[in-house]
Amino acid sequence: MRVLAALSGGVDSAVAAARAVDAGHDVVGVHMALSRTRDQFRTGSRGCCSIEDAGDARRAADVLGIPYYVWDLSERFEETVVADFLAEYEAGRTPNPCVRCNEHIKFAALLDKAVALGFDAVCTGHYARIETAADGSRELHRARDAAKDQSYVLAVMGPERLARSMFPLGDVASKSQTRAEAAARGLSISAKPDSYDICFVADGDTPGFLRDRLGSRPGDVVDTDGTVVGTHDGAYAYTVGQRRGLALGRPAADGKPRYVLAIEPVSNRVVVGPADELAVDELLGGDVVWFGAPPAGEVACEVQVRAHGAPAAARARVEDGAVVARVDGGLRGVAAGQSLVLYAGTRVLGQATVTGTRRLSGVAS
Questions:
Q1: Which Pfam families does this UniProt record tie to the protein (predicted)?
Q2: Could you tell me which CATH number the domain at 2-191 has?
Q3: Which of 97, 106, 107 is nearest to 337 (CA)?
């Protein structure tokens, strides 16, 4: 097959490309340039889009002996991932930019362009597995290494794009194995630190990035009864479940910590309250992506609402095209905008964006 290998400049994508070459595929490497403003890139390999990463990707391609190109996807990245990030926070929701990058950039812009150029598949260094079901359809599964599993952020891609994807690292036992393999192949990035943080927030200061883009918007922080207990410089800088950074002027009557319970963008208020008010029993999800037919009735599954969060047992059903998942024992601190992924064992059943939550005693948000 003709395979386009997405080379981020990290060890994972380089080893994934090497494995595609070993498998006999005709591999071409490509690095995605996601910003035209060079000072937006961070240094020290903290993110996945630094200046150093582009050079590391080129050197990896040289070692592998494959052609290498840089594709400018900066405009698409700004119009989709960054714009979505800002709009979601402005609306009082909590987005996951890695999910949106996979949706709009890696498995939309990149894959669509690859197919248009005659490539059969896109290969990435994500830790997830693709298995073929008895009916010939492809299934997305968790990686063998649970600590590195990235099926959560990949679930948004859907079955059509999964059919043209390759994840050669899905069966790797650990990241140390990937690093050892990179070293054995002569890849100089074998000891390169893992990327973290949001790649387009150059200094890692997300509230500062939001403030620079959205401006100062002072408002009140209120208790559940509407009593003003503090002020803020922008409700967009808060998320449900947050405790740190509230700077409340009045302590709670019981002396216990207070957490963000809700963000009200219209009134520009942040609502705080006790920890037990964060507990919810049902999650509501829209913009649903299914890997296979939607369940006809209620289905037992596990749900995950954070990239590195623990899965929780649940029962899910479809109502008017949306997902309703009742979680055994409930969850705490779930915010609208988060990605909700449903699993049956290691297999991804579907993905949705959280639109709201419910408590058995009433609506939580």
A1: tRNA_Me_trans (PF03054), tRNA_Me_trans_C (PF20258), tRNA_Me_trans_M (PF20259)
A2: 3.40.50.620
A3: 97
Residues serving a catalytic function are: 101, 199
Task: Give the Cα separation of 25 and 20 in Å (integer).
Answer: 6
The DSSP secondary-structure symbol of 39 reads: G
- 12 assigned binding-site residue: yes
Residues near 195 by Cβ (< 8 Å), separated by ≥ 6? 8, 10, 45, 46, 47, 48
Q: Tens of pLDDT along 246-278?
A: 878 777 878 889 999 999 999 999 999 999 999
* 9 labeled part of a ligand binding site: yes
Contacts of residue 169, Cβ cutoff 8 Å, sequence gap at least 6? 12, 15, 16, 19, 125, 126, 127, 143, 178
Domain boundaries, the chain: 2-191, 216-273, 278-363
Residue 348 labelled as part of a binding site = no
Whether residue 165 is annotated as binding a ligand: the answer is no
Locus of tokens 């930019």: 97
Contacts of 239 (CB under 8 A, 6+ apart): 94, 260, 263, 335
- Going by C-alpha positions, the residue among 48, 22, 49, 47 that lies closest to residue 33 is 49
Containing 160, the helix (H) or strand (E) segment is helix 158-162
157 is known to lie in a ligand binding site? no
Residues in the chain: 365
Statement: 216-273 belongs to CATH 2.30.30: yes
Pairing assessment for the beta strands 312-319 and 322-332 based on DSSP bridges: antiparallel
Q: Which CATH class is domain 278-363?
A: mainly beta
> CA-to-CA distance for 182 and 240, rounded, in angstroms?
40
Burial classification of residue 308, based on how many CB atoms lie within 10 Å of its CB (0-12 exposed, 13-18 middle, 19 or more buried)? exposed
- Say how far apart CA 179 and CA 79 lie, in whole Å: 35
Residue 122 sits at the vertex; the CA angle it makes with 119 and 126, to the nearest 5 degrees, is: 170
| pTM of the predicted structure, to 2 decimals | 0.91
pLDDT tens digits for range 193-238: 777 667 888 777 888 899 999 999 999 999 999 999 999 999 999 9
* Residue 125 labelled as part of a binding site: yes
